[in-house]
Each structure stands twice: as structure tokens, then as C-alpha cells.
């Protein structure tokens, strides 16, 4: 029997994450949607070949009526798909200054890290797809926060002792749905994904279809490739930025006179990094904010309010930050 192409593509994408480098077990974050269920099914298949235990984990954010019942259904579905073990964890979401979406994301990743530590896992797999990456790039464009916003989601990163991998960043949402159909898996449609009050939902259901219609197919792939290229550039620049920031650091700020030879791009990055260290919200800190902070140099008594309740002011060539009262 010929293997369904979508199922084959998902399995191939997941395969590289199963080997001696990662060890056992591997956690798979599962919401019950097509993306995460296709990921889990492929992980179970690849894990059985690599002698790696696969643990399915669902995070209950408690933001929707019936979330506990939904969580129980996802746990049952993960077990039916062959996960070696299943677990769920309920979190409390603090919207904070960044909003409910960012608060839920922060709580989710913290919970997944805790679960990985509990099970002795070094790797957590996440079900983000190429379409999610494209939407993330467009969100970055709306924020005007520069290359960092446009570089999208990383394929792999570490948070302490736990690694987080995104095997499906080259796989489309249509492919994960096709893979689920090939495996006879029914999936859940999160109502929040269709709620146009959320910016990402508007991008998914309004902006992306218009771009595809007016500019032709393949827009999501082009945006994802742009993110990949920008990430390479940002990775190259980061060591220079870190070195300049270390040299310029002073209590509560940075002395830009020390890094006068660093170039405008690096100096602006140093200012941005210092603002974030002081508590500014990275996703809301735009280039306009950074330029306004730099324009404080040479002024006296002038202050600027940054997102995240941070105040910036200048003393000579030193830019300082404090929490806004």
C-alpha cells in the first residue's frame, strides 16, 4: 500500500528528532487540533522505531467553558493514538500588560517545561506549522519591531535543561489535516482560532486569503522563507550586539559613548536590549520607541514611556531606565 503523501511528509519532518542525541522520553504538546494530533501520531510511529517513549501532554488554560472536559477528551485521544504515557496540567493565565494571548503562551511554555522536568525529558515537540510561521511574520510586520519580529519562530531552542523543537515548520496546515484524515483522526477546532477579536485570527481568516487571492499562491511559504533568512542575519549580528551591550552597561542603563564605534544598527540594538532588561515588552517595543529613546541623548528633564510601564531618560550620553510609578 502506498503511504499517504501528507502522512509521509509529517513523519519525515518528525524523524530527525528521534535518535540517541535526544534520549528518551520525548514530550509532545497536544491541544487536540489537527497540527498537534498529526505531530503526535508521527511521533508515536517514529518513537516506536527509535525505541523512544512518547508522552502526550495537554495544557488546560481554563479560558473556555468546558475546558476540563475537552482536556479529558484530548488525553483519551492521545492514549488511543498510542502514546506511551499521557498527562495534563491546568494553568492560571495572567494577561498582564501583553494581553491574554501572550499570557496564555507564557503559562503554557512554563507548564511544558515543568512537565518535561517531571518526566525526565530533554525535548518537547510543538506542532507549529508553516502557516503559523507566516502568520507570525505578518504579526511582526504589524508591530514594526524590526528583524526580531520578522524572524518568526525558531525550529529549536533551549530553556534551561529542556529543548523545544518545531518539526512541522515546513509542513502546511492543509498537510496536517490530510495526515489526520489518512490516519482516521478527528480533530478539534479551537473557537479562539476563529474569533476575529484576536489579531492572529484576523490574519488567518482575512489577511492571508486576500494575499493569496491578489498575489497568488505560495505567500505563506514565501513569508516563512523570509523568516528563515532573517534569522540567519540576526544570529550573525547577535554576538556583536551582546559584546557592545556588555561594554556599554551601567547601573540602570547603557552608556552609548562607550560604543560610539559600534555602528548605528548595533547601537540601536543595544538600546532595545537595555529597555527589555528594564521590563519593556519585546513584542510591543517598536523601532519608533527605540529611535525616540536614542533621541533623548543631549536632552534634560525629558522622559519617554515605553510599553511595559518603563520610563526612559538621558543623562549626558547615558540612557537610563526605571519602572514607571
The CATH homologous superfamily of the largest domain is termed HUPs
Q: How many domains, as an integer?
A: 2
Q: What is the CATH level 1 assignment of the largest domain?
A: Alpha Beta
pLDDT under 50 segments (min length 5)? Answer: none
Overview of the molecule:
The protein is α/β, with parallel strands linked by helices. The chain has two domains: 5-128 and 166-215, Rossmann fold (3-Layer(aba) Sandwich), CATH 3.40.50; 237-323, Chorismate Mutase Domain, subunit A, CATH 1.20.59. Helix content is 49%, strand content 15%. The protein has helices spanning 5-15, 34-49, 67-80, 100-119, 130-143, 147-150, 173-182, 199-215, 219-248, 264-277, 287-294, and strands at residues 26-29, 54-60, 85-90, 123-125, 156-159, 162-165, 249-250, 253-255, 303-306, 310-315, 318-323. It has a six-stranded mixed sheet, sandwiched between helices. Strands 7-8-11-10-9 form a five-stranded antiparallel sheet. A hairpin with a 2-residue loop joins β5 (156-159) and β6 (162-165). The protein is elongated. The model has no long low-confidence stretch (mean pLDDT 88).
Amino acid at each position: 500500500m502506498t503511504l499517504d503523501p501528507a502522512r509521509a511528509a509529517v513523519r519525515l519532518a518528525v524523524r530527525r528528532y528521534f535518535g540517541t542525541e535526544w534520549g528518551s522520553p520525548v514530550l509532545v504538546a497536544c491541544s487536540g487540533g489537527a497540527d498537534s494530533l498529526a505531530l503526535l501520531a508521527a511521533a508515536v510511529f517514529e518513537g516506536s522505531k527509535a525505541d523512544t517513549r512518547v508522552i502526550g501532554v495537554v495544557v488546560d488554560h481554563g479560558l473556555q467553558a468546558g475546558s476540563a472536559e475537552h482536556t479529558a477528551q484530548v488525553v483519551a485521544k492521545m492514549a488511543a493514538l498510542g502514546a506511551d504515557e499521557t498527562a495534563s496540567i491546568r494553568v492560571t493565565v495572567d494577561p498582564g500588560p501583553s494581553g491574554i494571548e501572550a499570557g496564555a503562551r507564557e503559562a503554557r511554555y512554563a507548564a511544558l517545561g515543568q512537565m518535561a522536568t517531571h518526566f525526565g525529558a530533554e525535548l518537547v515537540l510543538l506542532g507549529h506549522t508553516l502557516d503559523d510561521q507566516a502568520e507570525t511574520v505578518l504579526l511582526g510586520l504589524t508591530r514594526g519591531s524590526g528583524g526580531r519580529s520578522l524572524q518568526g519562530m525558531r525550529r529549536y531552542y533551549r530553556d534551561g535543561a529542556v529543548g523545544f523543537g518545531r518539526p512541522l515548520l515546513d509542513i502546511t496546515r492543509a498537510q496536517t489535516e490530510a495526515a489526520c484524515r489518512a490516519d482516521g483522526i478527528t480533530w478539534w477546532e479551537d473557537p479562539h482560532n476563529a474569533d476575529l477579536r484576536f489579531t492572529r485570527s484576523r490574519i488567518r481568516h482575512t489577511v492571508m486569503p486576500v494575499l493569496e487571492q491578489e498575489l497568488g499562491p505560495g505567500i505563506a511559504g514565501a513569508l516563512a522563507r523570509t523568516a528563515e533568512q532573517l534569522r540567519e542575519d540576526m544570529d550573525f549580528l547577535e554576538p556583536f550586539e551582546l559584546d557592545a551591550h556588555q561594554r556599554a552597561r551601567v547601573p540602570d542603563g547603557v552608556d552609548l559613548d562607550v560604543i560610539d564605534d559600534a555602528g548605528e544598527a548595533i547601537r540601536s540594538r543595544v538600546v532595545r536590549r537595555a529597555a527589555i532588561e528594564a521590563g519593556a515588552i519585546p513584542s510591543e517595543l517598536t523601532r519608533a520607541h527605540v529611535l525616540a529613546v536614542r533621541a533623548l541623548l543631549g536632552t534634560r528633564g525629558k522622559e519617554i514611556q515605553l510599553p511595559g510601564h518603563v520610563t526612559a531618560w538621558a543623562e549626558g550620553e547615558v540612557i537610563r531606565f526605571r519602572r514607571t510609578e
